[in-house]
Amino acid sequence: MKIAIFGSTGLLGKALAEKYKENELKLFSRTEIDNKQKFVIDYMNIENELENFFDNWKPDIIINTIAIVDLKYCEENLKEAKYVNSIIAESLAKVAKKYNAYFIHISTDHFFSDSLKYHNENASVKILNNYAETKFEAEKKVLQEYKKSLIVRTNILGFRYSKKKSFFEWLLFALENKEEISLFNDFVTSPISVNLLSNILLLCKKSNLSGIYNISSSEAIDKYSFGYKVAKRFNLSFENVKMRKTIQSDIKRAITLGLDVSKIEKALNIKMPTIDETIESLYREYKKGKE
Ligand SMILES: NC(=O)c1ccc[n+]([C@@H]2O[C@H](COP(=O)([O-])OP(=O)(O)OC[C@H]3O[C@@H](n4cnc5c(N)ncnc54)[C@H](OP(=O)(O)O)[C@@H]3O)[C@@H](O)[C@H]2O)c1
């Protein structure tokens, strides 16, 4: 299969590229170039630029993982956040439609702040910051542009293998080095490992799913309890980890982000991973990296 991945230097983009390496890939980013598989393009002129690639190499799947995920940066740079999180997504949906490719747009779970533990795809959305606003706008623009797109609401964990540590890398580093850290016991998510998510996205393509789907672990867990489970599985001490509550800072953020996965489980006729299965997948990757 021919798969084009946008944002291939990121946490998810890198994992997808590794998982799908048996396929014909084109990987797009701002920095990595080898002119065989990895390409840098001008994102201000994306639709024209991509004609040079896709007129002769029609992708079966286009995946958009591009985003500015830094909440503070999005608050301070709304125009840029809109461009990167929403306009690029819309342009890629147009491109996918033009080449009749299956389009997967990665969205977020940052849309809720209520007393519900789990949110299905119809749960009412509450926008608290520019990140959420621009990501929500992207969902609407992508579906307006290309109805057959798959929009994935998720929360991801994995290894970014770059200077900027992912949450999971930060947590593991702190546990391994017995650093004193605090984890929130009132910030709840349904995280899935990027490797498990990569497998499920291919099943979505096989079943030709379109519209909005929650694809995450089947359980919701707070960060403190998650950290405890990680320490146990990795056989590390949890002694230096303090429990704390989220504090209201200048950037408002949603804190009850649990996702209800019944729609995707029904559509694919499989179970989404539990939190333990997600941690096991991260443990396997960690061990592989250590070999
Ligand atoms: N991480 C999470 O916890 C989380 C949770 C829920 C949903 N998501 C969603 O999952 C997707 C992937 O997230 P991630 O954690 O993999 O993000 P990431 O590691 O920060 O990677 C983001 C990618 O976007 C690219 N990018 C950023 N600004 C750009 C710009 N101005 N022009 C072109 N490319 C740009 C980055 O390229 P450079 O390497 O050049 O910067 C990178 O390849 C995003 O849609 C995000 O909203 C993430």
Give the SSE layout.
Blueprint: E1 2-6, H1 11-19, E2 24-29, E3 38-40, H2 46-54, E4 61-64, H3 71-76, H4 78-98, E5 102-106, H5 130-145, E6 150-153, E7 156-157, H6 167-176, E8 181-184, E9 188-189, E10 192-193, H7 194-206, E11 211-214, E12 221-222, H8 223-233, E13 241-244, H9 262-268, H10 275-290
Parallel strand pairs: 1-2, 1-4, 2-3, 4-5, 5-6, 6-11, 7-10, 8-13
Antiparallel strand pairs: 9-12
Helix pairs in contact: 1-7, 4-5, 8-10
Order of helices and strands: EHEEHEHHEHEEHEEEHEEHEHH
Task: Calculate the mean pLDDT score and round it.
Answer: 96
User: What is the C-level CATH assignment?
Assistant: Alpha Beta
Basic shape: globular
Please tell me the CATH architecture by its name.
Answer: 3-Layer(aba) Sandwich
Q: In terms of per-residue confidence, which ranges show pLDDT below 50 for 5 or more consecutive residues?
A: none
Bound compounds, each kind once, are: NADP nicotinamide-adenine-dinucleotide phosphate
Count helical runs. Answer: 10
Helix percent band: 40-55%
Strand segment tally: 13
CATH topology: Rossmann fold
What is the topology, as strand order, of the major beta sheet?
3-2-1-4-5-6-11
- Approximate strand percentage: 15-25%
The CATH superfamily title: NAD(P)-binding Rossmann-like Domain
Describe, in plain words, how this protein is organized in 3D:
This protein is an alpha/beta fold and 291 residues long. The protein has a single domain (2-290), classed as 3-Layer(aba) Sandwich (Rossmann fold). Helix content is 41%, strand content 16%. It is built from 10 helices and 13 strands. It has a 7-stranded parallel sheet, sandwiched between helices. α5 links the parallel β5 (102-106) and β6 (150-153). The relative contact order is 0.14. NADP nicotinamide-adenine-dinucleotide phosphate (NAP) binds at residues 7, 9-13, 29-31, 43, 65-69, 84, 106, 108-109, 135, 154-156, 160.
